[in-house]
Write a structure and sequence with these properties.
The protein has 224 residues and is mainly alpha-helical. Helix content is 44%, strand content 8%. A hairpin with an 8-residue loop joins strand 4 and strand 5. The longest helix has 19 residues. Iron/sulfur cluster binds next to helix 6, helix 8 and helix 9.
Length: 224
């Protein structure tokens, strides 16, 4: 762990972010998160270590030990607190436990902040870059000739002209819904648990149709 942290530090990492919540603890022992937080604080300094969430890190436990029903109830209660952005399959799995709202409820919610000023990003094994909180939206691809900085500069310059990213940045998922309705997207009558749940279902429909592969992917992420 020390070697990894030193390597990341040498590579210019600003802050280490450790995920700790009931969802991760189904798969990652909380003891590993606690150890990582302690060692990283010693090595990097506490101000360079972020934990989402510290209260869970202190009081949480491994949710793999719960049965499916108990775990589902805990996930539902935790999700209701609203501090996590539920996206992708998480939104889909947890939606039945959450209050649903009509898509109109999410009108006028731009996603510019989440997409264009994402505080962290995800990079897959082939170099595809996604915003930190919007799984399945592709911002571009890194290569020997394209750095994160260059990718970000090109996003700033031309995002408005990109059909998915431009629409989400301007008009959020309700704007995207209008684009998708012409491709046959029909909203759920029971509504959506959050704007990201709505966004995910719209994007999945578009992926099923093979639309916008440059901006929506990787395809496996959308598989049921
Ligand atoms: S609605 Fe879509 S684009 Fe907006 S924050 Fe949620 S996942 Fe990201």
């Amino acid at each position: 762990m020390r070697d990894r942290l030193r390597a990341l530090d040498d590579a210019g990492m600003g802050k280490l972010c450790i995920s700790a919540d009931p969802y991760h603890q189904q798969f990652v022992p909380i003891a590993c998160c606690r150890l990582a937080a302690r060692v990283a604080s010693e090595l990097l300094g506490a101000d360079r270590v972020q934990v989402r969430w510290r209260d869970w890190l202190a009081e949480g436990f491994d949710t793999a030990e719960l049965d499916d029903e108990e775990r589902g109830r805990l996930f539902g209660r935790y999700a209701e607190s609203g501090r996590d952005r539920l996206n992708g399959r998480a939104a889909e799995c947890l939606a039945p436990r959450l209050q649903r709202k009509n898509p109109a409820h999410f009108a006028d919610t731009s996603c510019a902040e989440a997409i264009l000023r994402s505080r962290h990003i995800h990079v897959d094994g082939t170099g595809r870059v996604m915003p930190g909180t919007c799984a399945g939206i592709l911002l571009g691809r890194l290569s020997d000739r394209t750095s994160v900085r260059q990718l970000w500069e090109s996003l700033a310059a031309d995002h408005a002209a990109r059909p998915i990213i431009g629409t989400l940045a301007r008009a959020g998922p309700v704007g995207l819904m209008q684009l998708a309705e012409s491709a046959g997207f029909v909203p759920f009558p029971q509504g959506y648990a959050s704007k990201c749940h709505l966004c995910w279902e719209i994007r999945r429909r578009l992926v099923e149709l093979g639309a916008f592969p440059d901006e929506l992917g990787p395809a496996w992420m959308y598989e049921k």
